[in-house]
Model the fold of this input.
Amino acid sequence: MSEAPKYFAVLTDAGAALEARALETGKGVVLTHIVVGDANLQAVTPEPGVSALVHEVCRRPIDARSRDANDPKVTLLHATLPADVGGFWIYELGVIGRLEGEAEEVLYAYANHGRYYKMLPQDGQTITHELTIPIIQSTDAQLHIEVADDGYATRQEYLLLSALVEALRHTRRARWTLETAVAAGEPLPLPEGLTYIPGHSAVSLSFEGVNCHQGAQFAEAEADADGFARALRLLFNAPAGSEFEISIRGHSDALSLHDAPETATGLTARVNALENQLNSVAVRAAYLAGPDAE
Done:
């Protein structure tokens, strides 16, 4: 038999009662904050009968939610202690919940935490600490998570955002010559291994050294099942031997925060704003008239 985990969370009796009321009234359970306590510097064992932390020292809004990769029934709640919050020990954690439409809050879940001192910035060190609590519902009550928009990123968001920023640094280019003619309205296959994500206006195309205008000389193709497009749709006739050059700006190929809908925070809005700025540059660019242009 496998050993029971040393650190774990339990649904409290108050949390179970909250779910029961939610089912009875047809309302949802709203989870709002993760609370942190030092338990008077004593190790604790989570029990369902707990109604409050032994000694609460901090309360943080929930930053994000995700699913346990090993058990889809488990919801992981995340909160971040920023660098300027600290000066206390962490021994216990809790999740605050309430019934949808009501103000009264209860301790929905309770967990122990390995002894950890959250320091304040000192000696040039600035340390953030991410808290994660697994939640397993006892009923089918609808669970709502209030996700904060305070500018702090969880580790999962940081990795996604890092991938996007890294992709912004690279523009992929290719030049090739048509072996067979492509008629107006037909797909123009891209060179092997070259893809883009439609809808970002991140593709530039030139024909015989002349820039083509998206919407007038070419259009983006529909994405394949994996979300990537591997062709463009030409809006003019291109004979065999025609030379094309394509540039795909990096943000079209970056990981998106929308790929992980459970982690939506204010970071999504900031990433969207960044992409919109890049798109506006492409829209304002000047293009030379291509073939068949009137």
In short: The chain has two domains: 9-148, 162-284. Helices lie at 13-25, 155-168, 266-284. Residues 9-148 form one domain.
